[in-house]
Each structure stands twice: as structure tokens, then as C-alpha cells.
Design a protein that fits this description.
Two copies of one chain form a homodimer. In chain A, 45% of the residues lie in helices and 16% in strands. The first copy, chain A, contains nine helices and nine strands. A five-stranded mixed beta sheet of chain A has the order 5-6-9-7-8, sandwiched between helices. A four-stranded parallel beta sheet of chain A has the order 3-2-1-4, sandwiched between helices.
């Protein structure tokens, strides 16, 4: 498999990106194409005392899209940027996949503009793994978790299909259960968007199990949680905020005196692993 | 102060409502009017061996609005219901306030239909106290937390004014800080509703401090968090769900063996108080 990697996107690029790719070569049977300013990438290789072999090659791209640039404008004008070049490698069959830690909006726009849509799917979505509590390693897919702040019912139907197919083909879940995030379990609850989406999902080929209330998200039976990107962003970030703050508070209680520090020893590792479950850097990547 | 209480609304009514009112008489200097089926209320007095004095009186109401009735229809047709009679007591100056644990939609509709709106306020809202983590007893007001699933920017401006006035007059907070729940801190973030609301709030007399990302809600500096009722419901219930599930998981870890049970003793009370902070029955009432 050949993966095109945007060497110029994200915090501390290209240093951290190059470092990650060099590490990945040892672990995965993949060929990596680093896309970005050739001299900057070569300089990182030298710092790492790394001699590139045939499994890692460089594709020079002179332009960089910054994180605060207007996405649509940037991808239209910067044809020689690392993001656009990565996307075009996938389009032209020169790479099987691409990844970027850069401007998410530009990435979405470049995908729409140069790669195009799958037939029947109106909008691309960002998919996140939502860690389910008390279920070791189990997660639900949250679609859309931030690409489309405002959606139509047919968009949510598309997200349900994409989430189901991804969950079954990438994780082997058979007939994935699809839930719709809503403010009540009854079919007539919520906004016009949600009422209409309920009807579409009910009459679709996905395994729709109904509305999921926010209170039940952390232990949901659903494999795929469907919502608009505004809601997905709120759900993801609020979960993170609440979880981190509670765990921080408990840690403070546990370490406020020497006695409690000793008493807390048996739980320290458990708390740490729980904290990791909610750390966005654990699940940072999103298809 | 005279308070009209809907004796027939909520789980286990009228038994629990009557019991609560009898208890309240000992604690507060208020006069209570219990509104509902007189014979049912009297039967509860007898069970409690309570002899009503001048501080608690009964106003007979023959009809009851059930929790699953269509709100607007119910309040239009059931003029002799406990909810409508409570509202009308406030309208006619016979009571200073009213409370009900019954059908929330019917309560909102009855308020709109019989009590009417304050001039300049388009929509009533439900206000909840959102407990802030690690700040003993501090909370933010979440407006709207569920009355209006779909809103216009001017509705959110109204919520901001109501929340500010309530926070300053009921809790003595000077010049309350108002935040807008959004998916980013920049002014151009979010849906059309949020972009327009940002501009209205910025140019209003409230002390607007900008957008608040979901991740920052649990430790926000804002005294009033403004959002539509759909978002408010998601924020409130997701917080509850995440907090409860984490605390439950920690409790399980702590009690999974006898050794850990002993080690956990110093934290048991602390965890319990934290759990109480997130229990919706602690902050169950909502103006």
C-alpha cells in the first residue's frame, strides 16, 4: 500500500511528520510518499540520521496551506501545495490513501474539488471513534464529527451509510447498529432535521435502532452515531472536557495529602488508563 | 410569598408533592396553595397525620394533564386542570409564583397562552444550573436547556437578557458574563444561527465574552451559557451521562477486591459528593 503524507501540515511540521513516517516504516508494510518542500524534508532526515530507502520517497511541493487560511480559496489557488498534491496522487491512482495533520477545512475542500464524491453521497464527513465507557476497547463511530455544521436529512442518511460500511469493512462489525443522536427517544422528538432524518433512516437499508439521547451516548449499543457536524463537535469535545476535568479533580483529591497519596497508589494506573481513553491525542486521527 | 403548587404533576403525584409541601412549610416562610383534586390531597394529609393550618390551603382542580398529552391541545381544553389553574393564579395576582413537576410542554404552553410574554421577550426558556467542576458550589446558567429545539438569533438574545437578569437578581452576580456555546472560539464559527447571534450579542447590553467551545464548558468563566434548547439538552444530558459513567467505573475499580475496598475508604465520601454534583435530582428544578 502506498500512502501520501502531507509533510507540511500540523503543529511542528515537517519535523514531527517526518519523524512519525520514519517510525511507521519499521512497523507497517507500507510505502510512504512524503509531500512537501524537499529541502526541509531532507533536513529532517539528516537530523534523524536517516538514510531513505525505496520505502520512503519525497514528492516536492512548493506551497503550504496555513491552518488559518480560507479553505476553498487556498485549495483553488495553491495547486502546488502539499495538501492538493496528496489528494491528486489519490485521484490519479499514484497513492492508495493520503493523510494530513494540516488545515481540516482545506483538506475537505481539496477532497471535494479534486477527488470528487462517491456516487450517492452528497457530503464528505469526518469520522471519530467515541470511546464507550466500561467496554474495553469498544467505541462507536461518530459521523459527522465536524465537517458539516449544517446538514440536510439526506446528508445524515449518507453519513449512516458511510459509517455502517466503514464499521463493517474496517472493523468487522456485522450489520452495524445505527443510532440518531436526539433529545428524546420518541420518533417525533427534536428539530425538523431530526424528525425527517428519522424517517429516512427507518426506511433505509442501514440497521437503524432509533434515537439515542445524549445521556445514553457513553454506553450506547449503537456502533454508529449519526448527527450533523455541529452536534458531533459538541458531543466529542464536551465528553473530553467533562472526563478530563473529573479525572483531574479526583487526582487532586487523591494527592492532596501524603496519606491519601499512599492510599491512592492502587488506583493510579487505572485512572491513568481511563484518562488515556479520553485523550484526543489517543484517537486524534479521523478518516 | 404565596406559591401555587401543581399537586397532580410528576411521578408519584400527589403523594410526593404533598409530602414535599408539608416539609417545606417548616423550612420556608411561605404560604402554599396546593392545586389539584381536593379529596386526593386531603387523603395525603391524613396519611401524613398532617393538620393543615393557614399556611397551606387547597384549591380544587378537577382535571389533570398527563405527561404524554399534546401540550397545546391539553392546556386549551383542560381549563380546570391543576397546571392551568396554577398559571392563572399567577396571572391574577393570587400567587407570586407557581411550580409543577408535571408535563413541561404543557407548562410552557400554559405560560405562553394564559400568562403571556414579557415585552421584548419572544420565547420563554428553561434555565438549568450547570455545575462547574472544581469550583465548590459555582454553576453557570444554561439557557435554553430544552424549551425551544429550534431558535432564531433574536431568541438567543432574549435568553441572554433573561439569564443575565436572573443571575444578578437571584444570585447577586454583578454584570454576569455571557458566553455563546459554539464549535470554535472565532466569531465566524458555527451555523448561520450562531454567527448571527454572535453579532446580536456583541451589540447588546449584556456582558458578552464570546464563543465557548464545548471542551471548556465544565470550567467556563461565563455565568450564563446561551444556546438553543436542542443544544442545551444535549449539553446537560451528555455531561450527566459522562460524569455518572466515569464515577461508576471508578467505584467498580475501587470495590473489585477487598484490598482495594479498604484502600478506597478515604475517597468514598469525596466520590459521593462529586456524584451528587452531577445528579439531575440535585438540580432537578428549573425556572
Amino acid at each position: 500500500m502506498r500512502i501520501a503524507v502531507d509533510a507540511m501540515g500540523g503543529d511542528f511540521a515537517p519535523a514531527e511528520i517526518v519523524k512519525g513516517c520514519v517510525e511507521a516504516l519499521d512497523r507497517a508494510d507500507a510505502e510512504i510518499v512524503l509531500v512537501g518542500r524537499e529541502e526541509a524534508i531532507r533536513a529532517e532526515f539528516e537530523k534523524l540520521k536517516f538514510k531513505p530507502d525505496g520505502n520512503i520517497i519525497i514528492l516536492d511541493a512548493r506551497e503550504v496551506i496555513d491552518s488559518d487560511e480560507s479553505p476553498v480559496r487556498a485549495v483553488r489557488h495553491k495547486r502546488d501545495s502539499s495538501i492538493v498534491k496528496c489528494i491528486n496522487m489519490v485521484r490519479d491512482g499514484q497513492a492508495d490513501a493520503m493523510l494530513s495533520a494540516g488545515n481540516t477545512g482545506a483538506l475537505m475542500s481539496a477532497a471535494l474539488l479534486y477527488l470528487g464524491r462517491i456516487e450517492g453521497i452528497e457530503r464528505p464527513a469526518i469520522v471519530s471513534a467515541y470511546p464507550l465507557l466500561g467496554r474495553k476497547g469498544r467505541f462507536a463511530l461518530l459521523v459527522d464529527s465536524g465537517a458539516n455544521a449544517e446538514c440536510k436529512p439526506s446528508n445524515l442518511l449518507g453519513f449512516a451509510y458511510m459509517g455502517s460500511i466503514y464499521m463493517s469493512s474496517a472493523f468487522g462489525v456485522k450489520n452495524p447498529k445505527v443510532g440518531l443522536i436526539n433529545i428524546g427517544t420518541e420518533r417525533n422528538k427534536g428539530t425538523a432535521l431530526l424528525k425527517d432524518s428519522f424517517m429516512l433512516l427507518e426506511n433505509s437499508a442501514v440497521n437503524f435502532i432509533g434515537n439515542i439521547e445524549a445521556r445514553d451516548i457513553p454506553k450506547t449499543e449503537a456502533d454508529v452515531l449519526v448527527c450533523d457536524g455541529y452536534t458531533g463537535n459538541i458531543v466529542l469535545k464536551l465528553t473530553e472536557g467533562v472526563a478530563w476535568n473529573i479525572l483531574k479533580l479526583i487526582k487532586e483529591k487523591m494527592t492532596e495529602s501524603l496519606t491519601s497519596k499512599f492510599a491512592a497508589l492502587p488506583f493510579a494506573a487505572k485512572l491513568k488508563s481511563l484518562k488515556k481513553d479520553f485523550d484526543y491525542s489517543t484517537y486524534g486521527g479521523a478518516p
